[in-house]
């Protein structure tokens, strides 16, 4: 389950999507600052299909299904299992008609070590930017646009740490995923397979990132550089 990611080089991440789509995207708005610790309820840039082609929109991470709108406390869903999303009420319209690209530079997962949860940062080789396979719901009333990230089975790099991983799209897959028309089932299955482990790298990072309120480069620091109050 992916509930944290890093978007610390936003210009590079958007440039990678623009190059993959062979389309010029609008510059990032001022509020789209670098984030080292993106989590549920944050507003972040997402690339979605618009009337005149792909466009950058600010959306809240945590998809609010249509049947949750209007409720005093809406359920927010950060992830959807790729294997079942196309058949579940909460996600199937998003999979069919509202597939988006969520730009990112890496993601975090936590490994249990006794009573501790130790964070690990996963990136592509050479920290190449990428996008997650996302689905989104449009704004309505006081509910802003929201999105969720699809997850899949872990590859050999992620498996020792967690039993799920986000669906990662590299340049060749981004234009195939983005769209507002249903995908053939075989294409959907191909696009939502785990990225091969040899295309990725991983390293442990400071537990500073474990607090969702913490932000900044220290989220990427090594465990040896943890603040004294986090010392094992």
Overall description:
With 232 residues, the protein is an alpha+beta fold. The chain has a single domain (4-230), classed as SOS response associated peptidase-like (hypothetical protein yedk fold, Alpha-Beta Complex), CATH 3.90.1680. 14% of the residues lie in helices and 33% in strands. The protein is built from five helices and 13 strands. It has helices at 10-21, 82-85, 92-97, 174-177, 185-191, and strands at 4-7, 35-39, 43-50, 53-61, 79-81, 99-104, 106-113, 116-124, 130-137, 146-152, 165-166, 168-169, 200-204. Strand 9 (130-137) and strand 10 form a beta hairpin. 38% of the residues are buried. The mean pLDDT is 94.
Report, as a whole number of angstroms, the end-to-end distance: 26 Å
Strand content: 25-35%
Give the biggest beta sheet.
Answer: 8 strands, mixed
Unreliable parts: none
Give average pLDDT, whole number: 94
Kindly give the count of domains.
1
CATH architecture: Alpha-Beta Complex
Estimate the helix proportion, in percent.
10-25%
Number of helices in the DSSP assignment: 5
CATH-defined superfamily: SOS response associated peptidase-like
The level 1 CATH classification is: Alpha Beta
Radius of gyration: 17 Å
Described by the principal axes of the CA atoms, the overall outline is: globular
């Amino acid at each position: 389950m992916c509930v944290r990611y890093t978007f610390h080089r936003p210009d590079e991440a958007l440039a990678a999507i623009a190059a993959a789509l062979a389309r010029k995207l609008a510059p990032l708005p001022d509020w789209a600052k670098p984030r080292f610790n993106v989590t549920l309820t944050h507003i972040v840039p997402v690339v979605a299909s618009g009337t005149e082609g792909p466009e950058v929109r600010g959306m809240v991470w945590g998809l609010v299904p249509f049947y949750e709108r209007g409720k005093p406390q809406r359920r927010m869903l950060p992830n959807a299992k790729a294997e079942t999303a196309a058949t579940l009420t909460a996600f199937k319209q998003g999979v069919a008609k509202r597939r988006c690209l969520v730009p990112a530079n890496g993601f975090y997962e936590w490994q249990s070590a006794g009573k501790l949860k130790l964070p690990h940062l996963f990136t592509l080789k050479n920290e190449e930017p990428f996008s997650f396979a996302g689905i989104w719901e449009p704004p309505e009333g006081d509910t802003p646009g929201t999105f969720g990230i699809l997850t899949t089975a872990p590859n050999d790099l992620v498996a020792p740490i967690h039993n799920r991983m986000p669906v990662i799209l590299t340049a060749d897959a981004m234009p195939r995923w983005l769209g507002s028309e249903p995908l053939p089932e075989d294409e959907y299955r191909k696009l939502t397979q785990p990225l091969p482990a040899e295309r990725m790298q991983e390293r442990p990072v400071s537990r500073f990132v474990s607090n969702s309120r913490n932000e900044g480069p220290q989220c990427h620091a090594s465990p040896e550089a943890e603040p004294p109050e986090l010392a094992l």
